[in-house]
């Protein structure tokens, strides 16, 4: 047997007596069973009710979201309509000619009704007619049809009114300034744009008035410089009420209304679904649970209330800023929640049936269990014990066949179970290894580390994977990958950790060999470029070195660290396609030659596109010239859309280019280069990468490490990069 466990127990004649004494009477068993059934049924019903309540809450939240979209859409359209009316009138009030004529009338004290009234009144009248016709401030006049000499009464139009509320000029059909219209104008504050509430005009149609102040020409817009008003009156049923309808709405009981509170009365300013016209019937504001009264009191709320017809509805409200209105959108709950209630009822029936079936099954099992003979129970127990022993032996066989070391350690680091591989690695006898501390088996250094990982895995409550070296036997140190899986405590076993260790030494050596070969290949390619372009000598190597350091400082994955270093080293590979006379040219480059140099990075990417690197070397090279704000090339990527290795490479390339000495100039100081990079942070470069570079320079010895970058080249190299 390759693993060690400890089993023990005592048995004597007293155990039978204790069993008899502890045996429950049939009556007590029946009572306990009944109590258990009742508790199960109560818990099941409680869970059903809780589920139903949560489903109703979820459905209400969904309806609130849907209704918010509708009411916000209607609110926006109505608010824009109100603003549009004011804008139409403000266009007249801001008209320089209107301001000039009103200034002349005001200073001359001219009576517009006099026979010698200026001809400018005709211009103003025509202007009002045009705007009224375009903006909808027109309607048929009303009055008796029995005589041509009877003046018909207008109900809509535009007018210029002086500060004494005298009509200077108006469009045709403008109503007399009397009644509610006169009261609204009297209440208008000087220098303030005003909108009246909805009222019924002489024809019994819902109307509104709009007032915009007119100021003297070239005067400040202050109350003292106001000369009059532009007054607009229109019937709103044809324009405003259609805005209450939501396009594409499918709810049959959905209704959008505009209401206001006047004293203790809620007025309905728009037609109701029951056929009641606007301002025809009001309801008391203290009507219990009335939807419109609730909407006025709770602006922006969502609730289940009662509408004017006594139907329970879902309602949501919004308040307007320009007028004392409240917008209400409601849907009958009988329609809104019908589908969800049917689904819930079906689920409740299904759950109820399940509970009943489970209860029946419990009773049947209890009956079956109590009817078995003691001998059958004993035989069953023996069979289970034999099966358990067989499974235990099988598990030992399986674990002992594994090439990995498998052990169970308690929370203090003592061995509680182990397979044959772990036993062989310990070079100890089976009886000596059990209950030993891991430090006694693997040594104090490795034992202390493993004990710490055990505690960490138990504290986190999740699997912990660690790659580490251990020296066991005479084979020297080997690399292991160990998984620490927490095991919860049981009655017969304390909390512990399952530790599975796999020897990955060969894989690590193979990977290191492959990486070394890759680095040699990259070095060879870089040397090829350096031979053709002496001005770029050492630049690629330095970019790769800086990129590796910054990537490690940012703690990116190991594969990405290698990717940044390789891409930095290969960024000038594309220059092998550029004619040597261009690379070694001493004078200024032509635009075409400069474009060849700039495109060489993309050429580098194309040359390595089909090489199977571990990381995104191709993407890194292709995106080296992208800018963090999206202004770079070739694809105008921005932000996190640029791979992190390309963001690192761009900063490393710029840094090396600035601090490296050239044949014709000295290298820039590290501090000045960092200031330039930080100035372009989140513009050309990722500011986080620049900060990582600065931290490496100041806190990781980067300044001393790269001090040689500023030394002048020996033969004029390292000039262009």
Automatic annotation (TrEMBL):
What keywords sit in the KW lines?
Membrane, Transmembrane, Transmembrane helix
Keyword Transferase attributed: no
Give the residue spans that cross the bilayer: 30-53, 346-368
Any idea where the PAS domain is?
Answer: 391-461
Q: Which InterPro entries match?
A: HD/PDEase_dom, HD_GYP_dom, PAS, PAS-like_dom_sf, PAS_4
Matching entries from SMART domains are given as:
PAS
Residue ranges with Basic and acidic residues bias: 9-19
- Coiled-coil stretches are none
Sequence segments annotated as region (Disordered):
1-22
Domain named HD-GYP is located at 514-709
What highest taxon heads this organism's lineage? Bacteria
Q: Select a single GO molecular function from the record's annotations and give it.
A: phosphoric diester hydrolase activity
Asked if the keyword ATP-binding belongs to this entry, the reply reads no
**Name the UniProt record assigns to this protein:** PAS domain-containing protein
- Which organism does this sequence originate in? Pacificispira spongiicola
